[in-house]
Specification:
alpha/beta
């Protein structure tokens, strides 16, 4: 019968006719609820006297009925209970009904005390019975209407959702979904530790532990899994994804509670599970208070500010209210994008985005003399290994000579601190890009102690999602149906998010005394093959079956394994558990000035062969790719 009514409701002609009555819905709801109040009051007398109402109380009942209806209606109106949409009734509405009823009862008891000498007293039990009946009828009707609309009169296709997470984390999400059932229908809750198995939350059954997820997906016909476990360790998330790899359902996760105000989140905050959620990395923390003091009211310059690292440095520096932020970038589109973003997010920031190049030595001198920065973050560099193998002259021109230009301009402008962003590819380098960054490291370190400026270097590995890096490439290949291409089945890399890396750069800049090379702890190295398989699983596909993985061989200059310390360096702890300091033999600034002058002459002559030979003579652990010496510019 109910299904037939639902079918009739969805009939277009009937719906069109019903729409004509929408302007009269509010008067009808007010009238209907007043009828419920009247029924509750009359029924309370009927129940009190078991159907045999004495004449004197019968008259009192009818005389006081208008008073009861008026007082209760006024309190319902005060609590906006006549305007609520019944299909979205929630616990807050029931609270308001309870509150309005109790307040009206108190007022009616007082009124009865005042008028009882004239029209007769109302039995005290009537107030209790009437209050209970008003709450039951007005609240019950709302719940019935919501139940019927949700079960039999849906307005769209609802996704059957399984929530995975601890009860304290899952509760806000289930509560949110209970108010938006048109889109989401929670059908099961998986509590990782199975402590509440067999119970229910918001009428959603709490089922078995993680090892039963795949079976529960099938049993409850789950279309989407949402992980309400924002701080779950990566190995747990990996276990869950592996358990569900054959279910081919969508996976999403709520944000970290530390990222959401007061630990609350909404369905709008739920996002897809990203690869970084599954990678084993140590939790990042920095000394916010001291870094704020370190940057606040300072003039800060970021080179390469339109790149992945430089733009994130600009964002995070802006949060610490510098006196002004200067961004150097020679790619105008990238510079324009970060300018627009920072002006929108930090309207009071004194921002100076400049199209400039670190290869323009005289121009750098003039700009730094004009702006007088207190702190420089040097992120401008060529970074793509295969490209630099083909263009070693440009790598030396930008990464080495450009860095020297900036260093000399910083010294002349009496900059307080100069922080260079380096890379793990500078460790025992096998590529042109790596050896150019290693020479830049050595030169920057040699400059420390000779002038006012403190020179600091930070070295870390791959950052997830940086422009032109591995992860965006694999995601692009995945979106096109594959195959995913990997250079070697055993290749490994360190990974960290851009935001995490920049936080540690800021921490290193603060703790640096000068002449330091800081190494950021990036956790354990990850096999690229495992990473590709996880990407495929997150897309609901099966690696090797739905999406193939092809191995294409190592590229020129590419290592199988990355390192964080050179052979002649030793690791020493710092005051921060995620930052180590590399110490090794230092050579004098005079020697490096002579060497960089030689590099400058080789770059001017575009003498590729002698430049590569220079690298091998002066960087003893440089082991170049065989193809580097043979390719032409």
């Amino acid at each position: 019968m109910i299904k037939e009514l639902a079918s009739a409701w969805n009939n277009t002609n009937l719906v069109n006719r019903l729409e004509r009555f929408l302007p009269y819905r509010l008067p009808f709801l007010v009238f209907f609820q007043i009828l419920l109040m009247a029924a509750a009051y009359l029924s309370s007398f009927y129940l009190r006297f078991e159907g045999l109402i004495p004449r004197e109380y019968y008259l009192v009942m009818w005389k006081t009925l208008p008073i009861f209806l008026l007082v209760q209606a006024l309190f319902f109106q005060y609590h906006a209970l006549f305007r609520g949409l019944w299909r979205y009734v929630a616990f807050a509405d029931l609270q308001n009904i309870l509150r309005a009823t109790l307040m009206s009862m108190l007022v009616l008891i007082l009124i009865d005390f005042l008028i009882s000498p004239y029209i007769g007293a109302i039995p005290r039990s009537i107030f209790v019975l009437n209050g209970l009946l008003v709450i039951t009828l007005t609240g019950g009707c709302r719940l019935v209407v919501r139940h019927l609309r949700e079960r039999y009169l849906p307005e769209g296709e609802r996704r059957r959702v399984m929530v995975v997470g601890e009860l304290k984390d899952a509760e806000p999400l289930l509560r949110e979904m209970s108010s938006h059932m048109d889109d989401y229908l929670p059908v099961a809750l998986v509590e990782p530790h199975s402590q509440s198995r067999g119970f229910r939350m918001y009428d959603v059954p709490i089922v078995g532990g993680i090892q039963h997820i795949a079976r529960m997906v099938k049993k409850y016909r789950v279309q989407e899994i949402i992980f309400a476990w924002p701080d779950a360790p990566a190995d747990q998330l990996n276990e869950i994804v592996a358990e569900c790899k054959r279910s081919q359902v969508r996976y999403r996760i709520v944000p970290s509670l530390s990222q959401v105000l007061d630990g609350q989140y909404r369905m709008a905050d739920v996002r897809d599970i990203e690869l970084e959620d599954l990678l084993p990395r140590p939790p990042i923390y920095i000394d916010q208070e001291n870094i704020n003091t370190f940057i606040s009211d300072k003039v800060v310059l970021v080179t390469g500010g339109g790149g992945s690292i430089g733009s994130e440095l600009s964002r995070q520096v802006a949060k610490f209210t510098p006196r002004s932020l200067i961004i150097f970038e020679r790619a105008e589109n990238s510079l324009y994008e970060i300018e627009v973003e920072l002006k929108r997010r930090f309207p009071n920031l004194s921002l100076h985005p400049l199209v400039a190049s670190i290869n323009d030595g005289p121009g750098l001198d003039l700009l730094l003399q004009h702006y007088r920065p207190d702190l420089i973050f040097h992120a401008a560099a060529y970074k793509h290994v295969p490209l630099m193998e083909r263009c070693p002259i440009e790598a030396a021109y930008n990464n080495i000579l450009g860095t020297r230009n900036l260093v000399k301009a910083a010294i002349a402008a009496k900059v307080g601190r100069f922080v260079m962003i380096s890379t793990d590819k500078a460790v025992n380098p096998t590529s042109v890009m790596g050896v150019s960054k290693r020479i830049a490291e050595k030169y920057v370190q040699a400059c420390n102690g000779h002038q006012y400026t403190r020179f600091i270097t930070t070295r870390f590995g791959n950052v997830l999602g940086s422009a032109g890096s591995l992860i965006p490439l694999l995601k692009s290949q995945l979106s096109q149906g594959g195959p995913l291409t990997i250079t070697h089945p055993e290749i490994e890399r360190f990974f960290m998010t851009i935001s995490e890396a920049v936080q540690l750069v800021l921490q290193a800049a603060y703790i640096g005394k000068g002449g330091d090379i800081f190494i950021l702890n990036m956790g354990t190295p990850v096999k690229i093959t495992d990473l590709a398989e996880k990407l495929i699983l997150l897309a609901g596909k099966i690696p090797g079956k739905d999406i193939p993985i092809n191995f294409i061989g190592l590229r020129p200059g590419e290592k199988l394994y990355e390192e964080l310390f050179n052979d002649d360096e030793e690791a020493h702890p710092t005051g921060h558990p995620l930052i180590d300091c590399a110490t090794g033999p230092n050579e004098t600034l005079e020697k490096w000035e002579v060497r960089l002058n030689e590099i400058q002459e080789l770059v001017r002559a575009r003498d590729r062969e002698n430049l590569l030979a220079f690298y091998q003579r002066n960087i003893h652990n440089y082991n170049p790719s065989a193809s580097a010496a043979s390719e032409m510019v």
